[in-house]
Design goal:
By secondary structure, the protein is of the alpha/beta class. Helices cover 51% and strands 13% of the residues. The protein folds into 2 domains: 236 residues, Rossmann fold; 223 residues, 3-Layer(aba) Sandwich (Rossmann fold). The two termini are 44 Å apart.
């Protein structure tokens, strides 16, 4: 894989001086066309062998283009805050918005490669991680992100020569660390692992470009021309109105019309006295669980979804009554802001994930992609069909990082919803809770029901199963939610 990059490519100074002015002009033009159209974001991954010229090349790109619209991020060892979240959290936060360019040093490939090269993980774990990264990049590409991945390469002899030259110059000596020589000693092992990683993650959507790092002129032109070509192709496709083809088969409706929602007995019995007794006990158990030493090393994500007036707000209040106000955040999800629309749709949820010992409560959530966006036509069929797998990956990453994920669907009958709508309109202090939008959504009940059933079938997993709550009786619904929450939380922190 690295054979061509070890040929010792060269570009004379004279040839470089001919190419460079036109190349930087075209790059700058492409950058400002991208900024003007805001059709996609560009993410440039910088990886490779120490001493192969990664830093010099990025500095040159900043010189050739407008650095005000380029964000460069260098990732070293994760901070304590980053360690308390899933692996990809810090990279999601660094993604540029549409119209901008992000350059990522030490990105999501650095840790898996180093861990395997130095024997900290097995090959099976590495391959698992690479599969996760392939799906992550496929999702970014489907969301319109342009991924350009560079691997800067040097032969072992070339790396030694480069490090020696840097050390010999007083102005560059500081750039050579003990770690660089450590990597040199492990060169063959590192090269073997890198080759495996590049082979497994060079895809049609995000291929690797291997750069010969031995000659600065050749290196600069190769990187600049590759970035230019990639941006121009994406801009041309955008201008032609290219759209992703829908290849997923349709989701068939059940022949007998029986589904997860209409099979529920929604009006479950529970009187007020029994409710108050159980509520007090369950809130007490919840308070103890979230204040325990075991939970201090975990985090909790609660997702509440349901039809309008199903009782999500009331259920959330009964949960938060048992929590320290400093320990939780209730996150209501509405239509995305302009800032959020400029990012992949999961971005706004990744950035709200809780630290260890904390609770995040989502009043509506990332499931909007397969519910309201599907029903209202705010995204294409291709978008919401692929979202099921993307959501499952997202939740798997949360659970793998120690987060406890509980998802509640509050199901209410059409008749009960109508009664609650009318009651809200009749009471002054509840009138704000009912809008014309609620009445309009009610008319789309037949479209929402199959969407909900599809969502549950395709995203109820062993790591994050859906809990269906019969919600015509609010007392019963609240008790069931707290019971499920307490039992699953206690079980999780005992492990």
């Amino acid at each position: 894989m690295f054979e061509s990059a070890e040929l010792g490519h060269r570009l004379s100074k004279a040839d470089y001086e001919v190419i460079e002015p036109d190349l930087r002009t075209h790059l700058l033009n492409a950058q400002f066309e991208l900024l003007e159209k805001k059709g996609f974001a560009t993410v440039v991954l910088i990886n490779g062998i120490d001493g192969a010229g990664r830093g010099e090349t990025v500095n040159l790109l900043n010189e050739w283009m407008d650095p005000r619209h380029i964000a460069v991020h260098a990732f070293d060892k994760p901070t304590q805050e980053e360690c308390e979240r899933p692996f990809l959290w810090r990279f999601w936060r660094a993604l540029p918005p549409k119209g901008k360019i992000g350059i990522l040093f030490g990105n999501w490939y650095s840790e898996p490669i180093s861990d395997r090269a130095f024997g900290r993980i097995k090959k099976a774990r590495l391959d698992q991680r690479l599969s996760e990264l392939n799906r992550f990049e496929a999702m970014l590409a489907a969301e319109g992100v342009l991924l350009v991945k560079f691997w800067f390469h040097l032969s072992r002899a070339g790396q030694k020569k480069r490090l020696k030259a840097l050390e010999a110059n007083p102005d560059t000596r500081w750039r050579v660390r003990d770690a660089d020589w450590l990597f040199y000693e492990e060169y063959e092992r590192y090269r073997e692992v890198a080759e495996h990683v590049l082979r497994r993650t060079s895809t049609g959507l995000a291929p690797w470009v291997i750069v010969d790092g031995s000659d600065p002129n050749y290196r600069a032109v190769q990187v600049g021309q590759t970035l230019l070509d990639s941006m121009q192709r994406k801009l041309d496709a955008l201008g032609k109105g290219y759209r992703q083809r829908v290849t997923a088969p349709p989701i068939p409706a059940p022949v007998d019309q029986r589904n997860l929602l209409n099979a529920l007995v929604l009006n479950q019995p529970l009187d007020k006295k029994a409710y108050e007794t159980q509520l007090e006990k369950l809130q007490g158990r919840l308070a103890l669980a979230v204040r325990s030493e075991a939970f201090a090393r975990r985090s909790l994500v609660l997702v509440f979804e349901g039809m309008d007036a199903a009782g999500k707000g009331g259920a959330i209040r009964r949960v938060t009554q048992a929590l320290d106000t400093r320990q939780y955040a209730v996150i209501p999800i509405a239509a995305p802001s302009d800032e959020e629309r400029a990012q992949p749709y999961l971005w706004r949820f990744w950035r709200r994930l809780p630290r260890e010992g904390k609770v995040a409560i989502f009043d509506r959530s990332w499931y909007g992609r397969v519910l309201v966006e599907r029903v209202e036509g705010y995204c294409s069929e291709a978008d919401w069909m692929r979202a099921y797998a993307e959501i499952n990956d997202f939740e798997d990453q949360l659970v793998s990082a120690g987060t406890i994920v509980l998802k509640f669907w509050l199901s209410v009958s059409s008749d009960e919803q109508l009664q609650r709508f009318k009651a809200r309109e009749a009471e002054a202090f509840k009138r704000y809770k009912i809008t014309a939008e609620d009445w309009r959504n009610r008319e789309k009940w037949p479209a929402y029901e199959p969407a909900v059933c599809d969502m549950i079938d395709r995203t109820s997993t062993e790591n994050a199963a859906w809990i269906l709550v019969e919600a015509d009786n609010k007392y019963f619904a609240r008790v069931k939610i707290l019971t499920e929450l307490v039992e699953k939380l206690e079980s999780a922190i005992r492990k």
